[in-house]
């Protein structure tokens, strides 16, 4: 009887302990669930607040975007209007430049030579006395004593050929010569500018086949001869003199320059640029690719001998073309993205005019950038090749006066 009682008591004790254990476990789980519910409620409240803030931010962003769109439209209209006004101003400036002749050099006068060197006294009398002084000066110095003071007019003749090329006229005749592209062995000859303007493409021209390829639009026609640049077998630069009447080469001169060195950074295909003016034949070049400035050489048009060499101190960087007038080199500059070409540097071999005294002359904005500019001393005109367009610039000249 006693063992049975003990078993019952033990069983009851065990059941009571288990009940307390399970009750504690349930209380713990209940507390954890309540904590999870509290966190879920907090997360819900935070999500609802974030959602509200996101909606407000979206609304603010939408309003800001609408404002930006309106501002963009307003700015675009302003820029368009500004572009129209700038174009109008440029056209008016071009018109004014064709109607007026800006001062060419310094405030007092242009500088030619020292008065003491020539023994001339400044005339303050009548025009006849001034004419006599000028005649005396002309008799003792070169007849070529002019400087460019502006661009009088522009004539767009036609468009023929590739973006790069050259055209020029022999100062001693009316014949016009067209070089299409950057190299070749053929040039086109027209009897006059009028014939060239009336001819479609190269039809009606006389094709001249040269014995070797001309390289780059850097040739010159002077007194019945064609002077052009070719690259020899060793990639050296040679100047060829070709008789246009007889159709034969009369002389060849090798020039010690690197064939990879371009004269103008904006026209890298031009390794040497020949130019002719009232004083003869000139060659613009760069000795090496590391040379920062453009060099100038005076050539004997008969023998192709180099008479003298100068460092023009005009940088090659951003230069697109150059030409020579009365022994003065005018270097034309532009930008990588073609804008208005401008004469920004010049060099006078006689030290009569310095670059700082020269006017900053802008070319009327047309199509792109000049591939070549060739001066005709008889007409006082520039023959330009601009993105395939053949353009004539008529120049305003001013006499260099004594200071």
Could you characterize the architecture of this molecule?
The protein has 403 residues and is an alpha+beta fold. It contains 4 helices and 20 strands. The chain has helices at residues 2-99, 115-118, 127-140, 193-198; strands spanning 146-159, 165-169, 176-180, 183-190, 206-215, 220-222, 225-231, 237-243, 248-255, 272-277, 280-285, 293-299, 306-315, 319-325, 328-333, 342-348, 361-362, 370-376, 381-386, 389-399. The strands form 5 sheets. A 4-stranded antiparallel β-sheet has the order 1-20-19-18. The protein starts with a helix and ends with a strand.
Q: What integer is the average pLDDT? A: 79
Helix content: 25-40%
What is the 3D shape? elongated
* Tally of helical segments: 4
Major sheet, described briefly?
4 strands, antiparallel
Order of helical and strand elements: HHHEEEEHEEEEEEEEEEEEEEEE
Radius of gyration in whole Å, from Cα? Answer: 41 Å
* SS-derived structural category: alpha+beta
Oligomer: single chain
**How far from one another are the termini?**
150 Å
Spatial order of the strands forming the largest sheet: 1-20-19-18
- How many beta strands in the DSSP annotation? 20
Measured by DSSP, the beta-strand proportion falls in: 35-45%
Poorly predicted runs are 98-142
């Amino acid at each position: 009887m006693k063992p049975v009682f003990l078993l019952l008591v033990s069983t009851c004790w065990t059941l009571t302990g288990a009940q307390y254990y399970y009750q504690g476990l349930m209380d713990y789980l209940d507390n954890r669930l309540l904590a999870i519910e509290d966190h879920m409620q907090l997360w819900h409240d935070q999500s609802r607040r974030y959602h509200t803030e996101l909606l407000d931010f979206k609304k603010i962003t939408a309003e800001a975007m609408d404002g930006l769109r309106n501002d963009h439209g307003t700015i675009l209209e302003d820029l368009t209007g500004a572009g129209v006004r700038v174009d109008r101003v440029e056209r008016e400036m071009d018109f004014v430049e064709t109607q007026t002749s800006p001062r060419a050099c310094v405030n007092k006068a242009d500088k030619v030579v020292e008065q003491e060197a020539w023994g001339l006294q400044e005339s303050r009398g009548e025009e006849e006395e001034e004419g006599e002084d000028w005649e005396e000066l002309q008799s003792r110095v070169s007849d070529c004593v002019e400087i460019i003071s502006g661009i009088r007019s522009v004539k767009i003749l036609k468009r023929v050929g590739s973006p790069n090329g050259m055209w020029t006229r022999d100062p001693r005749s009316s014949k016009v010569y067209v070089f299409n592209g950057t190299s070749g062995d053929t040039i086109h000859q027209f009897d006059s500018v009028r014939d060239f303007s009336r001819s479609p493409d190269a039809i009606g021209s006389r094709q001249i086949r040269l014995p070797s390829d001309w390289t780059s639009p850097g040739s010159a026609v002077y007194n019945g001869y064609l002077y052009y640049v070719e690259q020899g077998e060793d990639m050296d630069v040679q100047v060829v003199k070709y008789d246009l009447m007889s159709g034969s080469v009369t002389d060849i001169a090798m020039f010690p320059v690197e064939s990879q060195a371009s004269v103008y950074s904006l026209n890298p295909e031009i390794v040497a640029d020949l130019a002719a003016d009232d004083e003869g034949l000139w060659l613009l070049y760069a000795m090496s690719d590391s040379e920062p400035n453009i060099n100038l050489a005076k050539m004997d048009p008969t023998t192709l001998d180099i008479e003298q060499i100068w460092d023009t101190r005009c940088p090659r960087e951003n230069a697109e073309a150059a030409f020579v007038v009365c022994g003065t080199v005018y270097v034309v500059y532009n930008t990588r993205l073609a804008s208005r070409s401008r004469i920004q540097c010049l060099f006078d071999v006689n030290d009569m005019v310095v670059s700082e005294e020269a006017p900053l002359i802008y070319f009327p904005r047309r199509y792109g950038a000049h591939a070549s500019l060739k001066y005709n001393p008889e007409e006082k005109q520039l023959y330009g090749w601009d993105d395939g367009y053949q353009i004539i610039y008529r120049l305003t000249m001013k006499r260099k006066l004594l200071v």
